[in-house]
Amino acid sequence: MISRLLLCSLFLTSVASAVEVSLISQNVWFILTASVPAMDRIPDYIAEFRSGTYDILCLQEVWSGTQTTYPDLLFEGLKEVYPYNVSTEPRPLTGLNLGLDSGLMILSKYPIESFAFHQYGNSSGIDAFSGKGAMTAHIKVPDDDGSTRDLIVSNTHLNAGGPLEIRLNQAREMRNSIDRFLKNLEETEGLDIDKVPVFGLGDFNTDEWNDELTEVQEGYQQLLGVLGPTTKDIFRSLYPPDVEVGLTTSSSRIDFVFGLSGEYTVVSAGVDGFVQTANPAFRLSDHLGAHATVKLEPLSANGGASSTESSDSSMFGLCWSTMSLLFLFSSHLMTYA
Ligand SMILES: *[C@@H]1O[C@H](CO)[C@@H](O)[C@H](O)[C@H]1NC(C)=O
Ligand SMILES: *[C@@H]1O[C@H](CO)[C@@H](O)[C@H](O)[C@H]1NC(C)=O
């Protein structure tokens, strides 16, 4: 009986060892044309993010020209909660650029093992003078039992304006750069790249909706297609279009958390409007945050999905019979007490 109970509780612990991870994509609007200077809004962002609501922050428009001021301030203000970060180096004012980097920054509560940045070759208009791209990080999420879960997060900001084809080409570049990153992890660390959960977040500048918010745009469907056959718009997987439009700007839905591939379970998703309420005097951004929480299970054993299942179900049977016995035993005691 005792050993059965022990087995049973061991089994229950291993079931309970899935970890939940929350991610948010937020365009922070640190752009010179914003109505309130970035320096006046950074303290509000720090105060807000210090609450640690999300485990991983994917930020866009942390533009800092030829200096690292904005990423440095964010990192300094948040390092107790988010000790790990990646941002791109500022670009020198040489050649035909505005000294603008990618504007991308990832802040994480959990260790960032490695990362890669790919600058897009496709771009148009004023964006061609910046260094937009896709920033992909390999993050190790710790579990209660001392083990870790691998997680891949890619943060991006696609071309603003111009033809859709530019953004679709950038999304293809993003997909390719993630595949290269994964391939490398497979070769160097033996990572199971078919099962590791991969997420793509950011400001995709591709509206899900037409102007009347009545029809889903073909460009949005194409974006999903280009990002790969297993791509899932996590918010949309929970809220059908007729239930929640899910706008992330005043008139469009362009910020997304996409599940690209791998094993994970969706827990929740939503649009976070803290930028509208954090400071009553002004808005922190012209974009709202798109967030999602997912559950990461230990990756299933290679080629052993069915055998894992059968041993799990026999364990379930054992636990169930043990619990029924316990129940009988205690109700027996109660009857005679
Ligand atoms: C985080 O950012 C700071 C400031 O930009 C930098 O000095 C530090 O090396 C970064 N840390 C990591 C782990 O990327
Ligand atoms: C533009 O994107 C396509 C598709 O991703 C890619 O094949 C091509 O190399 C890119 N162009 C440049 C200049 O990088």
Q: In a few lines, what is going on in this structure?
A:
With 337 residues, this protein is an alpha+beta fold. The chain has 8 helices and 12 strands. Strands 3-4-2-1-12-11 form a 6-stranded mixed beta sheet. A 6-stranded mixed beta sheet has the order 5-6-7-8-10-9.
Radius of gyration: 23 Å
Shape: globular
Contiguous helical run count: 8
N to C succession of SSEs: HEHEHEEEEEHEHEHEEHEH
Biggest sheet, in brief?
A: 6 strands, mixed
The proportion of strand residues reads: 15-25%
- Kindly report how far apart the N and C termini lie: 22 Å
Indicate the CATH architecture of the largest domain.
4-Layer Sandwich
The distinct bound ligands, ions and cofactors come out as: 2-acetamido-2-deoxy-beta-D-glucopyranose
| CATH class group of the largest domain | Alpha Beta
Into how many domains do the coordinates divide?
A: 2
